[in-house]
Amino acid sequence: MARKILVVDDEKSIVKALCYALKKEGYEVGKAFDGIEALKVYEVFKPDMIILDIMMPRFNGYDFCKKIMGEKVWILMVTAKTDVIDKVLGLELGADDYITKPFDIRELLARVKSGIRRMDKSMKEGQRNTSIRRGELELIYENRQAILRNEDMELTPKEFLLLYELLANPNKVYSRDELLDKVWGMEYVGGTRTVDTHIQRLRRKLGKKYEKLIYTVHGVGYKGRADI
């Protein structure tokens, strides 16, 4: 079955060119010209991947990411901005990769193929070990769900994957660079500080008791614990 890709951009010429190139590669393609229309198409089309422009009228790409945060869909962010902070914001809202305008269509297609390979790898890894339990905390890989004291935790996709990686391999010490590679899967533009930021958020959400599942190895990085 062909992978389904949703193209979202307010520039019709770009949408037309991307749709043509993706269809030529064998993908099933949907399109939208702003964030509001994209949400409607997303609900019906159910894409595997979204190529998402950030700067759009009415409802921009950041707003769209917030709306679908936690969904199992790969997001390739397209931005005309070159500032690192803009790219970091999109990635921390759930985007998985980014490309800057103007771009070569061959580079975009290569990133699409890379994203699909990572999705396939992630699914296979999830099939091997679908859930992790630590006391009243349960992580279910298949639907990226975290449950603490019978309540769903509101984790971003990256927060979930980071916590899952640490707890799936208890007592393994990870450097920040290793965690970037495991969770973000690319040379991340924001640097290793984003790992610390995500760890801080996870600890706050886990609370006083369960924050101890994440241990700081000073001068190196972090490790997950098998128990509290």
From TrEMBL:
Keywords annotated in UniProt: DNA-binding, Phosphoprotein, Transcription, Transcription regulation, Two-component regulatory system
List the Gene Ontology MF annotations in alphabetical order.
Answer: phosphorelay response regulator activity; transcription cis-regulatory region binding
4-aspartylphosphate modification, residue list: 53
Organism superkingdom: Bacteria
* OmpR/PhoB-type domain segment(s): 129-226
Task: Tell me the PANTHER family matching this sequence.
Answer: PHOSPHATE REGULON TRANSCRIPTIONAL REGULATORY PROTEIN PHOB (PTHR48111:SF40), REGULATOR OF RPOS (PTHR48111)
- What is this protein identified as? Stage 0 sporulation protein A homolog
Tell me which residues form the DNA-binding region: 129-226
Q: Where is the Response regulatory domain?
A: 4-116
Instruction: Kindly list the biological process annotations in GO that this record carries.
Output: regulation of DNA-templated transcription
Whether Iron counts among this entry's keywords is no
Q: Is DNA-binding a UniProt keyword of this protein?
A: yes
Q: Which PROSITE patterns match?
A: OMPR_PHOB, RESPONSE_REGULATORY
A single Gene Ontology CC term? protein-DNA complex
Function, as annotated, reads: May play the central regulatory role in sporulation. It may be an element of the effector pathway responsible for the activation of sporulation genes in response to nutritional stress. Spo0A may act in concert with spo0H (a sigma factor) to control the expression of some genes that are critical to the sporulation process.
Q: Which residues cross the membrane?
A: none
